[in-house]
């Protein structure tokens, strides 16, 4: 579901694409969730069935990421203790300044509400590949200051030169942070650097 009126443009985003006005330079759209999901995998000839909550979103743009004025972004999601599913999405602009950030809360009936949020990520800690790792974030509704989502890193499950993914202990507040959530951080300026190209060629083979 795309939230009209909550586009996440950042300062410095070019207003045109190929000479034409760009209404949406960067589009993030939750497509499915919360929902029940089931995955069937075959590992070493043995079928493994994983059942849990499902979620799907998409990112789209008319410009390459590095031309959109985005320095880095954070996405966090959890099904929390009050029975809702909550997502935080924040984009930090190139050149510094506060992020453009929204929260999406969906109740058990599937009704969603989109709010602007303020988010505090504290100090980022450098990984062995140089990524800035967020270990805890606190999101509150902008204006009212009402608690929205707190996430504390539990485990790092993807560790790359421009992308990190973690499991979270999450809740509406720190005191209620007991459910499992997920966090991703993307450092746009670290995507497609020359030293990464040989690794891409190792992983991508031409069709035969």
Your description of this structure?
By secondary structure, the chain is mainly beta. It has one helix spanning 197-203, and strands at residues 16-17, 20-21, 26-43, 46-61, 70-79, 85-93, 100-106, 112-120, 125-126, 132-133, 136-141, 147-159, 163-171, 179-187. Strands 5-6-7-8-11-12-13-14 form an eight-stranded antiparallel beta barrel. A hairpin with a 2-residue loop joins strand 1 (16-17) and strand 2 (20-21). The longest helix is centred in the last third of the chain and has 7 residues, at 197-203. It is globular.
> Helix count, per DSSP?
1
Looking at the structure, what is the overall shape?
A: globular
Give unreliable regions as ranges. Answer: 1-23
Indicate the percent of residues in helices: under 10%
Topology order in helix (H) and strand (E) letters: EEEEEEEEEEEEEEH
* Major beta sheet, strand line-up: 5-6-7-8-11-12-13-14
End-to-end span in angstroms? Answer: 38 Å
Which helices and strands occur, and which strands form pairs?
Elements: E1 16-17, E2 20-21, E3 26-43, E4 46-61, E5 70-79, E6 85-93, E7 100-106, E8 112-120, E9 125-126, E10 132-133, E11 136-141, E12 147-159, E13 163-171, E14 179-187, H1 197-203
Antiparallel strand pairs: 1-2, 3-4, 5-6, 5-14, 6-7, 7-8, 8-11, 9-10, 11-12, 12-13, 13-14
Brief synopsis:
Helices cover 3% and strands 55% of the residues. By secondary structure, it is mainly beta.
Features:
two-stranded antiparallel ribbon, disordered N terminus, 1 helix, 14 strands
């Amino acid at each position: 579901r795309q939230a009209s009126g909550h586009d996440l443009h950042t300062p410095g985003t070019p207003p045109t694409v190929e000479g034409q006005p760009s209404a949406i330079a960067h589009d993030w759209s939750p497509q499915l969730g919360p929902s029940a999901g089931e995955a069937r995998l075959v590992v070493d000839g043995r079928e493994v069935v994983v059942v849990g909550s499902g979620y799907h979103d998409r990112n789209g743009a008319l410009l390459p990421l590095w031309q959109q004025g985005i320095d880095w972004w954070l996405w966090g999601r959890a099904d929390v203790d009050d029975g809702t599913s909550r997502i935080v999405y924040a984009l930090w602009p190139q050149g510094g300044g506060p992020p453009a950030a929204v929260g999406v809360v969906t109740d058990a009936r599937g009704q969603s509400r989109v709010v602007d949020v303020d988010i505090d990520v504290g100090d980022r800690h450098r990984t062995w590949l140089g990524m800035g790792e967020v270990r805890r974030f606190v999101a509150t509704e902008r204006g009212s200051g009402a608690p929205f989502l707190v996430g504390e890193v539990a485990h790092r499950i993807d560790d790359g030169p421009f992308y990190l993914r973690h499991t979270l202990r999450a809740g509406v507040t720190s005191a209620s942070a007991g459910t499992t959530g997920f966090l991703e951080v993307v450092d746009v300026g670290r995507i497609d650097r020359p030293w990464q190209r040989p690794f891409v060629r190792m992983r991508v083979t031409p069709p035969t």
